[in-house]
Each structure stands twice: as structure tokens, then as C-alpha cells.
């Protein structure tokens, strides 16, 4: 299990259903939005942007040419380097986990922003990540506890990855002339074999909603939290599935901030809610006190655990792709170009093809739904 101390800067999705007149007049350039992470013993990356007026069609504009620093109460300073597009990084950090730190930003207009100084939160290890069959699908959950009863507030993120296969192998391709017109069918490989690069692929999906949990109302700091529900017959379990769960310890204030964001999203379709000025984090504009800043700065170590689920683990998983093949004469290949060539039906010893099977491209080419580049952690 890897441990990573990081700085969590809350991300907001900027979309409002209705126009409103904000009680605090927004600056012409919009509110500052900060997101990213800072590792105490590794790299750091921040994305700094601004909201735009609510009647604009865009969502965010990047904040460039800013001075960005991490400052410790012990007077240590770590400078970020801008990499374009509002992205600021530090290649390597070595922070003192017993110190307090804050984020400091000075924009190109001269406005200054600073977070409160915060302590490093120590998250307990993840006890287990498991799954259970439920409502015909599969429910993934996490178990954790803090034997010292010091954490109480948690957040989780998930990174899903799954391997899947095309319904059909393919050994054929369209033959095209110099004008890219289809004039026949050819073998993909000199040995007339199947093309493996179109058969096995991978897809990933990161959590986008806020997953929060609190054990504060319990007598002990222990949590069982559902994380992901995989629908019945989902393609995620067609071959091999994995999920990496990341766990973060929160302060009570950050938990309440994130919980309000979550409720705003559920009630209005926007993390802002009706009035973004009411969503108060711990980052402030020191040049213009009272100007809202979107984000919450916290430092905590991160705990991780990965699990694997094979199709063999759920033998009654009834995934299938609705695919069919059709016999196509080679001289009709251009007319049926919406069908991808699969395999020959009639051909001679010289390899000349007269009739072949065609199918919907999504049933033949797995790269239409993902990538054929194998993840480095995949077995």
C-alpha cells in the first residue's frame, strides 16, 4: 500500500440552472477557483482558474502569470512553476509533517490570496475494500476505522479500470485506392491471422461525485461505506475489473464545506447552489476582503487499496454485446462500408476473398470504446 501526503483543493463544477443577482458583486474577472494536490514527499500540481459571468457560455478561464507559493509557519517557502494554461507545479517537495502550511497566490493584477494555515491530517489505513451481489448487480464498499478515534470525517475517490474484448476477432480490412475509395477486401496480416490490437482493450473511469462519510455520531470511529454500484450485465465485469480506492482524512470544517457542495449539486445541479458567496472555504482574498474564493485547502496523508474482480468471480454475470454478422460479397464492399470486415466466408488458396462476414464496427474494433494500450499495473 502506498502512502502519499497531499493537499486537497476542492474542485467545483461551474454551472447554474438559473441566473440570479449575487448579493456580493462578483469581480469582472470572476471568482478565483483552485484545485489540485500537494505531496509532502513528491510532486505538487495546482490548476488555478476563474469563474465567468453566469450568462456566459464558457465555464472557466485559466489564471496565468500568477505567483504561487506554499508557505510554512517555520518561514519555509516553496515556489510553484507555471506550465501554461493555469497549471502550476513543483517537481519534488519534502515537507515537515509536524508543521502548518498555507497556500499563497498573487495574480498578475496584483491581487493576493491566502489560505488559513492547516495541520497535516493523518488518515488511518483502509481496512478492506470488498463487494457483494446486490439487486442483480454488484456493490463495492470500503471499511475503515481509526483506533485512536481521531479522524471521524472522510472522503473517498475511486479509479475504475476494466479489460474488455470485442465480440469478434477480425483478420480483414477494406482495400482502398489512391483516392481512398473502397475497391475490395484485404488481409490485415501477411499470415492471414487475426489482428490482436483490435480485440483486447481497457477503459477507465474516475469518480466525479463527492463520496463523503462521517462516524461522528457513533461511539467509535468506524465506517462501512458503499462506493460504486455496478449495474447488472455491465461490460465492466466482462473480463477483468479493478478499482483503486483512495481515502482522505478531513477536518470537520472541510467535511461541512464538501457536504454543502454535494447537497447543492443534488438540489440545483450545480456545486455552487443559488449563491456561490454562501459557499465559504478557507482561502481568502487579502486584497479585497469578502470576495469569495472557491476552494478548500487541507493537508492529509492518503491511503490507497486496490482490488480485482474477474469474470470467474461472478460466473452468472450475463454480459453480452448485441452483435450480428452479415454475409457481404466483395464487389458490394463499398455499399456495405458501414459494416466492418470480420473474416472470410469464401476465398481461394491464393488468399483471394469473394465473400466475407461484416459486423457493426463497435463489435469488431475495441478501440472505439477505449484504448488498446495496456495499463502499466495490469497483470
Q: Can you tell me about this structure?
A:
Pfam families: DUF4249 (PF14054). This is DUF4249 domain-containing protein. This protein has helices at residues 252-268, 361-364; strands at residues 3-9, 32-38, 44-51, 60-62, 67-72, 77-79, 81-82, 87-90, 101-106, 112-115, 120-121, 126-134, 137-145, 153-165, 172-176, 182-187, 200-206, 211-214, 222-230, 240-249, 283-285, 293-294, 297-310, 325-329, 340-347, 353-359. It is mainly beta and 379 residues long. Among the domains are: 3-124 and 250-304, no CATH class; 167-200 and 318-368, no CATH class. Strands 1, 11, 14, 17, 18, 20 and 23 form a seven-stranded mixed sheet that branches.
Largest sheet: 7 strands, mixed
What integer is the average pLDDT? Answer: 88
Helix-strand sequence:
EEEEEEEEEEEEEEEEEEEEHEEEEEEH
Helix content class: under 10%
The tally of beta strands, per DSSP, is 26
**Helical segment tally?**
2
Write down the Rg. 27 Å
Query: Judging from the principal axes of the Cα atoms, what is the shape?
Result: elongated
The proportion of residues in beta strands is 35-45%
- The secondary structure category is mainly beta
Distance between the termini: 17 Å
Amino acid at each position: 500500500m502506498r502512502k502519499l501526503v497531499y493537499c486537497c483543493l476542492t474542485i467545483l463544477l461551474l454551472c447554474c440552472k438559473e441566473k440570479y443577482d449575487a448579493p456580493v458583486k462578483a469581480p469582472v474577472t470572476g471568482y478565483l477557483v483552485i484545485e489540485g494536490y500537494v505531496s509532502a514527499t513528491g510532486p505538487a500540481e495546482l490548476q488555478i482558474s476563474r469563474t465567468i459571468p453566469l450568462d456566459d457560455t464558457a465555464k472557466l478561464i485559466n489564471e496565468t502569470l500568477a505567483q504561487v507559493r506554499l508557505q510554512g509557519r517555520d518561514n519555509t517557502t516553496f515556489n510553484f512553476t507555471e506550465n501554461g494554461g493555469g497549471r502550476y507545479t513543483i517537481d519534488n517537495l519534502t515537507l515537515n509533517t509536524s508543521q502548518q502550511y498555507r497556500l499563497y497566490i498573487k495574480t498578475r493584477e496584483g491581487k493576493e490570496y491566502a489560505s488559513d494555515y492547516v495541520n497535516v491530517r493523518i488518515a488511518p489505513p483502509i481496512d478492506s475494500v470488498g463487494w457483494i451481489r446486490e439487486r442483480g448487480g454488484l456493490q463495492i464498499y470500503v471499511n475503515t476505522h481509526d483506533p485512536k478515534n481521531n479522524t471521524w470525517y472522510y472522503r473517498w475517490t475511486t479509479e475504475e479500470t476494466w479489460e474488455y474484448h470485442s465480440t469478434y476477432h477480425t483478420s480483414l480490412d477494406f482495400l482502398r485506392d489512391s483516392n481512398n475509395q473502397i475497391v475490395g477486401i484485404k488481409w490485415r496480416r501477411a499470415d492471414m491471422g487475426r489482428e490482436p490490437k483490435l480485440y483486447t482493450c481497457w477503459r477507465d473511469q474516475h469518480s466525479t461525485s463527492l463520496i463523503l462519510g462521517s462516524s461522528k455520531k457513533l461511539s467509535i470511529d468506524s465506517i462501512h461505506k458503499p462506493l460504486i454500484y455496478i449495474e447488472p450485465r455491465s461490460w465492466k465485469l466482462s473480463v477483468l475489473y479493478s478499482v483503486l480506492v483512495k481515502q482522505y482524512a478531513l477536518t470537520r470544517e472541510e467535511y461541512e464545506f464538501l457536504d454543502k457542495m454535494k447537497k447543492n449539486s443534488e438540489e440545483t445541479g450545480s456545486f455552487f447552489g443559488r449563491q456561490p458567496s454562501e459557499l465559504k472555504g478557507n482561502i481568502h482574498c487579502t486584497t479585497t476582503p469578502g470576495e469569495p474564493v472557491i476552494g478548500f485547502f487541507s493537508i492529509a496523508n492518503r491511503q490507497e487499496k486496490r482490488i480485482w474482480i474477474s469474470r470467474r468471480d461472478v460466473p452468472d454475470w450475463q454480459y453480452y454485446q448485441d452483435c450480428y454478422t452479415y454475409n457481404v460479397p466483395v464487389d458490394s464492399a463499398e455499399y456495405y462500408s458501414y459494416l466492418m470486415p470480420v473474416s472470410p466466408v469464401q476465398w481461394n488458396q491464393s488468399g483471394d476473398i469473394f465473400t466475407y462476414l461484416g459486423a457493426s464496427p463497435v463489435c469488431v474494433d475495441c478501440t472505439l470504446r477505449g484504448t488498446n494500450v495496456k495499463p502499466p499495473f495490469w497483470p
